[in-house]
TrEMBL record:
Belongs to the 4-toluene sulfonate uptake permease (TSUP) (TC 2.A.102) family. The keyword Flavoprotein does not apply. Keywords: Cell membrane, Membrane, Transmembrane, Transmembrane helix. Pfam families: TauE (PF01925). It is a multi-pass membrane protein. It comes from the Bacteria. This is Probable membrane transporter protein. It is found in: Cell membrane; Membrane. The chain crosses the membrane at residues 39-61, 73-92, 98-116, 137-158, 164-185, 197-215, 227-246. The keyword Transmembrane applies.
Length: 250
């Protein structure tokens, strides 16, 4: 199968994940770029951020139109993570790749288990302006992990918004896209030189398919329950975590 066809298929899946689940784009994009399209890990991380930034902004617009974005809490959540993301990103360059891969797998598995557990929190319709210290604290922690692992962070932002800030699933999905966009843009700003080796003949179609997939994912999110979305998200995370942990240990 040609690289172009693989890029289109992988891009559509990444877009569906971001549009429907509010995260998982980098979790899917990085392995696809490495194992399907032959990118080296460093180039795959940078390319993933380009793809996820463009797709997240598209999906954010779609969710904002239907009122699923909590702008105040989301902006605080994202802003609190920018400096920790930069510091952790500098530290990540000094760590061996297997260590980062294993850490990525462990955090993804932890997020999945959290999403599968029954939530005791009650969704708060006024969460847009509530508990700013929780939003800032959780956002800082997420930013540090995002910088360390080199991903947009949606697969962590969604469970954090659900369990820590008591967002209902649809609001968590929409708001996480604001966080992903901010984190990805910040990460790209520190990797400007790294875009020189990107193969745009692959990344262009990949990004285009992901953007189209995000619109389909948004429509899918309106047709299924929040619980089903949450459990689907968790199963995807567990599968990716298992695959990457095996890869790190072999």
């Amino acid at each position: 199968m040609s690289a172009l066809v693989l890029a289109l298929i992988a891009g559509a899946l990444v877009g569906l994940a971001l549009g429907a689940l509010g995260g998982g784009g980098s979790v899917l994009a990085v392995p696809a770029l490495i194992y399907l399209l032959g990118f080296p890990p460093a180039a795959a991380t940078t390319a993933s951020l380009i793809i996820v930034t463009a797709t997240s902004l598209t999906a954010l617009y779609a969710h904002a139109r239907t009122g699923n974005v909590r702008w105040k809490a989301g902006a605080l959540f994202a802003a609190a993570g920018l400096l920790p993301a930069a510091a952790a990103g500098a530290a990540a360059s000094r760590l061996p790749q297997p260590v980062l891969t294993a850490a990525f797998a462990a955090v993804a598995a932890l997020a999945a288990v959290t999403m599968l557990r029954p939530s005791r929190a009650t969704a708060d319709p006024a969460a847009d302006g509530a508990k700013p210290y929780k939003a800032a604290g959780t956002g800082a922690g997420l930013g540090a992990l995002t910088g360390l692992l080199g991903v947009g962070g949606g697969f962590l932002a969604v469970p954090a918004l659900v369990t820590v800030l008591a967002f209902e699933m649809q609001a968590a999905v929409g708001t996480s896209l604001l966080v992903i966009s901010a984190n990805s843009l910040a990460s790209l700003a520190t990797r400007g030189a790294g875009t020189a080796g990107i193969d745009w003949t692959v990344i262009g179609p990949f990004t285009g398919a992901a953007i189209l997939g995000a619109w389909d994912g948004k429509r899918l999110a309106t047709k299924v329950t929040g619980t089903l979305l949450q459990h689907t998200f968790a199963v995807v995370l567990l599968a990716v975590a298992a695959f990457m942990l095996i890869d790190a240990l072999t």
